[in-house]
Amino acid sequence: MPPGLPNEFAGKEAAQSALNASAAGRAPLVFHDKVILRTEDPELIVVTARAETTMADGTPYRNSYVIFVRIRDGVVIEHTEYLNPLAVMAATGL
User: Fold this and answer.
1) CA 58 → CA 26, 92, 94, distances in Å?
2) What CATH number is given for 12-92 in this structure?
3) Is-contact 69 44, C-beta < 8 A?
4) Is the distance from CB of 83 to CB of 71 less than 8 angstroms?
5) Domain of life here (predicted)?
6) What's the burial of 18, exposed, middle or buried (CB within 10 Å: 0-12/13-18/19+)?
């Protein structure tokens, strides 16, 4: 992530707080071109997607994501996503 933004959120509450703060400054984030890939590890899936929205000031935001999700006994136990930090910087003015 760009300077000034955290690289990691540990725990459900911290992640939810960060997502709520992000959502307050933009329209809903719309994901498209989603591809869900199974791996040899039965708990792990990999997702690629593109997303876009409009920030509160009208600036467009578009980014590409690679997301790793680990699910055990029907519960997400790990969610790691990678995105282009330059798109975040352009949309937020950082």
Assistant:
1) 9, 11, 16
2) 3.10.450.50
3) yes
4) no
5) Bacteria
6) middle
